[in-house]
Amino acid sequence: YATDILPSILNQITSCRDPLAQAYLMDCIIQVFPDEFHIETLGIFLDVCPKLREKVNVRTIIQSIMERLSNYYADEMLLLDAEKEQQYKDAQIQQGGEEKALSPTKKSISENTVKKENSFQLLNSCIQNIVSTRKSTIPSKEIVRLQMALLRFTLKCYPGNMFHVNHCLASCATSLRERQSLESPVDKKQQHQHAVPPSASTTGATPSLDETTIDELEKLLSIPLESLALKVLQLDHYSDLLTFLPWENRRQVAVVMLKAVETSKSNLNELHQIEELFVILTPLILESNVPDSYSHGTFISKLEEEEKEEESQRLQQQEEEAATTQVNAEEHDKRTADLMGALGISNENRQPSSQRNLARSTLSKRSSSAFPNTNNTAALLSTAINFSVEEQYLLAKLIHLLHHDDTDMAFKMLVLAKQHLCRGGITARLRFTLPPIVFESLKLLKRVKKLEMVDTMASTAAAPTPVEETKKEEEEQPKVEEEETKEEGEKAEEGEEDKKDEKEEEVTEDEAKSEEDEKEESSKKEEEEKASVVAPPVFTKKVNCRRIFLFVQKTIAMLAIADPRASFKLNLEAAISADKCAILASSSSSKDTNSDFTSISYEFITQAFQIYEDEISDSKAQQRSIEMIVGTLLSCKMFEKDDYEALITKTAQYAAKLLKKPDQCRMVTLVSHLFFTGADANDKGAYRNPQRVLECLQRALKIADACSMSSSANVQLFVEILEHYVYYFEKDNPVISDRFVSGLVALIKEHMESIGFSSSADQMVFAETQGHYRHILRYLQKKKDEKESAKKFANVVC
Questions:
Q1: What is the mean pLDDT of residues 124-130?
Q2: Helix (H, G, I), strand (E, B) or coil at 524
């Protein structure tokens, strides 16, 4: 077949001048003869393809032979056992960056495997010959389709071989450039009339292609994403082909890329990998008409410059604080202590004002830089931007795949991702993409907190303080003196004692020796224990908790323009995280660190209050916001008394200014819990102001009384307030007595007896309120019957 039959048939086909006959006969050869024959004679068959008539569609012929071969090779792989199949796949991955046949050690897999390796070379040479011989006649869409067929063949037959994939993309890009350079001005003018208008690109001008070629090229770029996912970032020529697509088609490829990455669930752990990925995802971040000054690698170099600048600023700031701030702070604290002492108030636990406000001033100074080009961002935000919410959700999921074991590198990855996401300015897209940045930063904060705080705590626990060492020496000194006096007395008595007492002396000497041996053993054990205690490593990371909080604050400030409510929630979340850092820092030896984190937490809550006042105007949204503020303040345990009182007073004012009276009543009642925190008065971080609790509850009763006059259904407000009265009475609030509980129960009974219904809806509300009220009465009766609480609840009339 190889020497006689096939050559004679191919000679007749090439001598035939009919294109239809040539195409038909070539297809007959492919379909009639078996696969083994095609493998042995593939080179002979492909040498004829460039010699066929120009009107013959060579692509369909090559696609047919590729399908036959790929199906045959796939069936052959099924016959291999798992070990040999894995050997073949590993060999393909190893030679992914090399152009060579299968290594001799792998030839034992199959004889056809070596020929399979040569199949790609033969097919690629054939396609190159066709493109070179038909430069002026072959259209661009056929070039893309040929490379697409070869790409599918290599992905099916050579899984993991990156060299073959990259070669297909490079050949396609080179052929398209050569094809466009050969076009005449007339052809370009005619093609431009039917072409998709090129859009602005970050990588240069987009070459004009017809719609069919653009669709085929988009399919070509989407094919490797399904099997390679993030590995396409290693392909040098993938981004080159993207430049041939207009903006909208590049956006479709970016969506396919994100879906492939999400399906693979592989983590991103390299800066250059993230940089390449976000270049491909640019159409999901920017609009085509938004100017972009980004060039490849600028953000990574910018990160390195910022890191050096921050390090020098930190060192300079430390020197300035040591030289100037210390003197002024000591003088101010001394004058304050004198004034407070004259009033009879002790200031032993008062923190220096300079240290207390250090972190807050640092955040305030840098908060202005979080709003770059504020005048222009409002205009960008107001413009009509067309984007898909689903696409932005995919982009947001990508942030959660950024991971690195080194916390410094993980922080750099988040900063790089944020810089790319903000390239288009502060737009509506940021409400989807910035919150994941904040949550991942707070997640990273937990890791850094363990390294920074736990190391500090362990080092302070391992090393004994100088005071403890001096105490130990003072305790051991009298013991040594006693031992010396005993030894002198024993020596003086030895000469005076008679021989009768020699046995007794021997016994005492033996006892003294045993005591000395025990002391030596105990001292050795103590020395061994001290030697076994190894001091933990010092925290050497460049990124600490304060730096992460600064990054979070800047990110939330940018989000406040695009989505104020999300920014409000994230500020409260960050405040809780800062308070947890303060709790952990309080157990270490440094009180300054504790004060810094408390000030950071205070700053985040202040920012949330500012957003509440400026941006949140809907009554229901205000109610939910107050509930979140109350929950946050109850979660924070490390505020100073003055700061905490300022925050809860402001929260009470917000609750009293709500538009609807029922909302006012509920929120004022809820805010009362801020004035009575902690399990007991001695609890750490507890704040107790019983009189303010009573004032809140009495104000809520007045509002509820006014509401009950307008609608009988508002009697439920009294029931809700009764529940809070019972809670405070049970928690031993000194101003909430059984008289208040009994009086409120009588008031609710009176209202329920005289209530009237104006509608069926009021009747349903009343039924729910009555059930709630009966449940509270059953609870009170239960407390009266229990032995532990019977005395306390005995005078409650229910």
A1: 91
A2: helix
